[in-house]
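QA checklist item 7 of 12: single-chain prediction sanity check.
[x] sequence parsed
[x] length recorded as 114
[x] structure emitted
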Amino acid sequence: QVQLVESGGGVVQAGGSLRLSCAASGSVPRFNVMGWYRQDPGTQRELVARISSVSITNYADSVKGRFSISRDRAKNTVYLQMNSLKPEDTAVYYCYLRSTEDYWGQGTQVTVSS
């Protein structure tokens, strides 16, 4: 089993920055993809960014150039640096880890005020 614990959400004004962290613990597979999805009430969960075991990254078009994902393999932790935040970035952000199974964090709220 793998447990994911997120931190770093909060309220920020438009144009500001936040950094999310997600620490994986338990039987963490050596080869995996970690990343972040987000979901606003009434909408589908959408991929924000992901990073593979060899640090190949992918981003949603809506966050390219503003968000940056990174990972510390020694700590089994993934980070999402979010800059130039917009009100439309407001959502619950979920960390996930994908290997032979999918694991999800509990979610952290990000609110961007205009």
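[x] summary fact logged: The chain is about 0% helix and 55% strand.
[ ] second reviewer sign-off
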